[in-house]
Design goal:
55% of the residues lie in helices and 7% in strands. By secondary structure, the protein is mainly α. The protein folds into two domains: 204 residues, Rossmann fold (3-Layer(aba) Sandwich); 90 residues, Tyrosyl-Transfer RNA Synthetase. It is globular, with a radius of gyration of 21 Å. The two termini are 33 Å apart. It binds adenosine-5'-diphosphate and tryptophan. The site of adenosine-5'-diphosphate has 19 residues, from strand 1 and helix 1.
Length: 332
């Protein structure tokens, strides 16, 4: 039986962080042995903010290097740049004819951008979920490993797949967001507001490229308070966040020890943060070191991306030929 198809992408908008790792990359690495995987750098998606060409190129190389440093094996998966696959923008154009302005304007991530960057509400931003749909459908992807923030985008991809099938006949399977532990992950930022992210909340986000001292400093600054005064009291959000981070990188016993100290009011947040900082350093250090070495080796990264693009185009060209035929734009 052929393996189920997995597709996911990460935008080349900056340094990768713990949210990217636990929301997406950790799943990629586990999935590479079980599934037929297509993982890519969403460089077209990152053009919505008009990056400097030199920064964009470095960011693309970095995303590839950091993915490999986290354990992705370019011989097992197709690892490529989105812009190396011309079939993606072709499918995007076709899907745009089935996507309505009204529904795109209602997407929460679009509405956020309208609020936060009113001077740059471009058409690419509006049709962002359509391009993401093309990314997935071009390989007939079924499982899409992403963090919680992408759940609605994948739901839209499902709607567009159904719409295409309804109009032109059964072509695309319906994609679903995926995480090994059923629930999609949201890694919180260290200041208790929102999620870790590549470009916002820089001081409250732990990057895979952060050096040991930076990690320690950021963790020690995480928001806490004087501690609980009543046994088994409810945990404020920002304390829950610290426990969530501890849960990601520390031993089960460590988390349980601090949890019971919280419950009987003997917890010292300073100690808990020191423990978290050391466990984070141990987690991030080897990834950072591998990524730094690879990041310099452009010829190697280029070879990997070329190989990935070849694999991805093999699948993409079949899908686009089928879509053209279904639509009726195959003449010869
Ligand atoms: P960012 O939001 O940091 O710019 P991307 O948009 O490129 O990152 O996201 C790449 C992947 O990382 C997506 O699957 C996304 O859901 C996931 N991701 C990003 N931030 C987080 C987070 N804080 N927690 C969990 N997953 C996240
Ligand atoms: N939109 C995703 C994000 O911002 C990145 C992405 C682009 C993606 N195309 C995709 C994720 C296809 C999964 C599948 O995080």
């Amino acid at each position: 039986m052929s393996k189920e198809i997995v597709v996911s992408g990460i935008r080349s908008t900056g340094y990768l962080h713990l949210g990217n790792y636990f929301g997406a990359m950790r799943n990629y690495v586990k999935m590479q042995d079980e599934y037929n995987c297509y993982f890519f750098v969403a460089d077209y998606h990152s053009l919505t903010t008009h990056p400097e060409p030199e920064h964009l190129r470095e960011n693309v190389y970095r995303v590839v290097a950091e993915n490999i440093a986290c354990g992705l094996d370019p011989d097992k998966v197709a690892l490529y740049a989105q812009s190396d696959i011309p079939e993606i923008p072709e499918l995007y154009l076709m899907l745009n004819m089935l996507a309505y302005k009204g529904e795109l304007e209602k997407v929460p991530t679009f509405k956020d951008k309208v609020r936060t960057q009113p001077q740059n509400v471009n058409a690419g931003l509006l049709t962002y979920p359509v391009l993401m749909t093309a990314d997935i459908l071009i390989h007939k992807g079924i499982k899409v490993p992403v963090g919680k923030d992408q759940e609605q985008h994948v739901e839209m991809a499902r709607n567009f797949a159904q719409r295409f099938n309804g109009r032109y006949g059964e072509t695309f399977p319906e994609p679903y967001p995926f995480n090994y532990s059923n629930e999609l992950v949201k890694v919180p930022s260290l200041d208790g507001t929102g999620k870790m992210s590549k470009s916002e909340n820089v001081n409250a986000t732990l990057y895979l490229a952060d050096d040991d001292d930076t990690i320690r400093k950021k963790v020690m600054k995480a928001k806490t308070d004087a501690g609980p005064t009543e046994h088994d009291s409810e945990m404020p959000d920002y304390i829950q966040n610290i426990f969530q981070l501890l849960h990601l990188v520390s031993k089960h016993e460590t988390v349980e020890t601090y949890r019971s100290m919280y419950n009987n009011c003997t917890i010292r947040y300073g100690d808990m943060k020191k423990q978290l900082a050391e466990d984070m350093v141990n987690f991030i250090q080897p990834i950072r070191e591998r990524a730094t070495d690879l990041q310099q080796d452009h010829p190697q990264l280029q070879r990997i991306m070329k190989l990935g693009a070849e694999k991805a185009r093999e699948s993409a060209s079949k899908t686009i030929a089928e879509a053209r035929k279904k639509i009726g734009i195959n003449y010869y």
